[in-house]
Amino acid sequence: MRELVLATISEKPDIEVIREIREDPEIAHVVGQSQPDFMIIALDRADERLTLCADLFRRHPRMKILALAPKCNSSIFFWPVLGIRSAHIENSEEGILSALRGKAHVIAQ
User: Fold this and answer.
1) Minimum mean pLDDT among 58-62, 71-75, 86-90: which range?
2) Is the same domain home to 91 and 74?
């Protein structure tokens, strides 16, 4: 799976593979040095490494992680969401439904 992913992304001119890491203890150090936009990690199970992701996101909140679990044919994309955002919406049935559907029209104040 690793070879397939590397072959796929290395052909893309807008993606640069900075480094391959084979040992988990190296991950935090290498990410700290290289500050990648994305990291691709391998999983044995789809539910593992959540602690690793949380630790990395605390230190690197703009990074995103693609986790591949080939044994269970699963891929998971992780990204942190920071902060709370708010906006006034139209106070009507249409305004409320639009907000719930992600199509809210914001009222400037």
Assistant:
1) 86-90
2) no
DSSP string for residues in 44-94: SSTT--HHHHHHHHHH-TT-EEEEEEGGGTEEEEE----S-----B-SSHH
Q: Give the total number of structural domains in the chain.
A: 2
Are 34 and 18 in contact, with CB atoms under 8 Å apart?
yes
**Same domain, yes or no, for 34 and 53?**
yes
Structure tokens at 13: 């001119």
DSSP helix/strand/coil, 17: coil
Phi, psi of 78 (to 5 degrees): -115, 140
